[in-house]
Design brief:
Number of helices: 8
CATH architecture: 3-Layer(aba) Sandwich
CATH class: Alpha Beta
Number of domains: 1
Structural class: alpha/beta
Length: 258
């Protein structure tokens, strides 16, 4: 039983947020820091990571650090995990896999290289980071893995073949690992956002007609904001969510219920 009365008090907790330099990952990392956690954000763009880390530390001094990683490269992930382990003395409470990419095209136009690139970034990267973080998560007094899936892991849309395939994989990957680690004090869950106002949806947002067409499918008639995912992440990362594993929280404005 947790001894702290505030379920969202992360004082003393350690967290690694992959894709924490922007979008949903940045919002989640900022929220963890605001609640007392020590956080490492990681991704491919070191300049963006530094800017984001500096912005977080202006509000919450000393809570955020950054490390560069290419999640599609096993050697890069190995280097990251070694650095994180050294920084956190071999113990990690919270892992968030939030890195991702999308290449939109009908199947007849999807090249094998493009298909593999999306799967590597979204699914293989999640596999590599999660697998190699296991020892640190197990060594912590509690462990939480939160993987960003998508509503396109259970429903789909034209020209989303690569993305939906990868996110469907993330969903079942997470459920499988949840079963394997259930007795180790490590929970594994997913968050499935609907359309959000993030960089990955830039092409949709630039085309107003396409944006409005998308919104017709959403009962709330709008895209979500990245911050609207934060409370789901705080809940799943909490010490108090210890009986929640293998679950998926859908944050989609009602899309998949309509």
């Amino acid at each position: 039983m947790p001894t702290n009365k505030d379920p969202f008090d992360f004082t003393g907790a350690t967290a690694l947020v992959i894709g924490g330099g922007s979008g949903i990952g940045l919002e989640i990392a900022t929220a963890f820091c605001s609640r007392g956690a020590r956080v490492i954000i990681s991704g491919r763009n070191e300049d963006k990571l530094k800017i984001s880390s500096d912005c977080i530390n202006e509000k919450y001094p000393g809570h955020c650090s950054y490390l560069k990683v290419d999640v599609t490269s096993e050697s890069s992930v190995d280097d990251l995990i070694e650095s994180v382990s050294n920084f956190f003395q071999g113990s990690l409470n919270i892992l968030v896999n939030c890195a991702g990419t999308n290449i939109r095209a009908p199947i007849e136009s999807v090249s094998l290289d493009d298909f593999k690139a999306v799967l590597d970034a979204n699914l293989v990267g999640t596999f590599l980071v999660t697998q190699k973080s296991h020892a640190m998560l197990k060594a912590a007094n509690y462990g939480r893995v939160i993987n960003l899936a998508s509503i396109f892991s259970t429903v789909t849309y034209p020209h989303r073949l690569s993305y939906s395939s990868s996110k469907g994989g993330v969903l079942l990957f997470s459920k499988t690992i949840a079963l394997e680690w259930a007795e180790q004090g490590i929970t594994v869950n997913t968050i499935s956002p609907g359309p959000l106002l993030t960089e990955i949806n830039k092409k949709v947002l630039e085309d107003r007609d396409n944006y409005n067409k998308f919104c017709e499918r959403i009962p709330m008639r709008r895209f979500g904001e990245p911050y609207e995912v934060v409370t789901s992440a705080l809940f799943l990362a909490s010490r108090y969510s210890s009986y929640v594993t293998g679950s998926d929280i859908v944050v989609d404005g009602g899309w998949t219920s309509s």
